[in-house]
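hey so i finally got around to running the thing on that chain from the lab meeting. sorry it took forever, my laptop kept dying and i had to restart like 3 times. anyway pasting the input first so we r on the same page abt which one it is
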Amino acid sequence: MTEFLNNYPILTLVTFLPLVGAFVILFMKNEVNIRWTALLFTVVDFIVSLPLVCYFNTATHKMQFVERYSWIPSWNISYYMGIDGISVLFVFLTALLGWICILASWKAIEKKVKEFMIVILVMQTAMIGVFCALDFFLFYLFWEAMLIPMYLIIGVWGGERRIYSAVKFFLYTLAGSVLLLVGIIVLYFAGGNTFDILSLMNQNYSFTVQFWVFLAFFVAFAIKVPMFPFHTWLPDAHVEAPTAGSIILAGILLKMGTYGFLRFAMPMLPEATHYFTMPILLLSLVAIIYGGYLALAQEDLKKLVAYSSVSHMGFVTLGLFVYNTTGIEGGILQMLNHGISTSALFLCVGVIYERTHTRKISAYGGLAKVAPVYTTFFAIFMLSSLAIPGTNSFIGELLIIVGAFGYNKVIAGVAVLGAGLGAAYLLGMYKRVALGEITNEHLKEVWDLDAREIIAMVALVVFVVWIGLYPKPFLNVMHASTEHLLKQITVTPPQ
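ok and heres what got predicted. didnt touch it at all, straight out
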């Protein structure tokens, strides 16, 4: 089976199947049929992605399921696709969240349903393509292809301040994309006139080239993460975006930044990476503490979860830049965990918003009395985000903190304080929303989850529990690639 998959263009199929679905929907008119067609294509795409994980060879760091065809020979551009132990996890996560986004939008999106489903499917293709591309030109096309669909999701189907939030998102990410393009062009000429990502990893660049390219890459990827102080677009985008938009943002788009560090900045520019390590670690600590305090002060459910993302992604960047296997594997696992847990929290916020049309925490209280199934799922995802033992995020945060202690005990100690802040804002939020007596009479009319919503939440609970109790399969997948990455970035830092 593995040999068959290596000779079959499965990455092309996984990447472009949603785009085929968007093309099919283009000729449809009935909204019910459009929803079912979008769901069908995303479910099939998820099923097709399963062999990538099931038959992935964990013993090697080399790219697998490789597809390569000459595209623009005069510029040495190829259609070059492949995945390793890092990218395979995020192809799978993207495919998983695709059909969950469709289910989350089933009733929430009432206007321009056809256009919305097309945009979601186009976005799916672009996101999977980013994780599969091994040619920088192809990667950049996918990277830029995400910009317009996300802008439309926020700007057309968002809340009252959707235009402001969409423009802010667009300007931030466009600025990062321009710097990314500049860095790619510099590497193209410095690396022998090629866009081959694996070839560019094996070049020896002068420190001057590494310094300036790393700065360009850093800003581009830091905006996507988002790292402090590039984070201000995120709360606005999350609050105004529809539920599916928030799931995509939290689950996938934020991972593009940390993936960029792992795939490009660290292995291609090792000297510059070491040179900038301490500033990045300090910014990560600021994000952990600052994001936690801001989340603690929020009265809007969505803003609270959005600021918690700033804090949680601070843990991820901390793990990646401590340069040991434990920390990096913890960071990668936490990227996956955050995509599951925070997407689930945004799904929970969207579900209750559909019923109450408010996100004010003060408008709730006693919700467990009228929606016990909903509040049970909400509790599971809240505890997961809190990193309680037995949940997925516990394993990721534990590995990050252990790795950080191996690098610098003071840095690790400050990070632990951030974990304490998480307990304060998440437990406080849950208490005010779900527990106690019903303080708002309108809540007595709230109905519990339906089958569609339960299916979406159960799919995420499976991974919360699975990774929490048995993370070994996920760590095995990334281990060889992590070890290879450490070899690539093991250099003597410049004096």
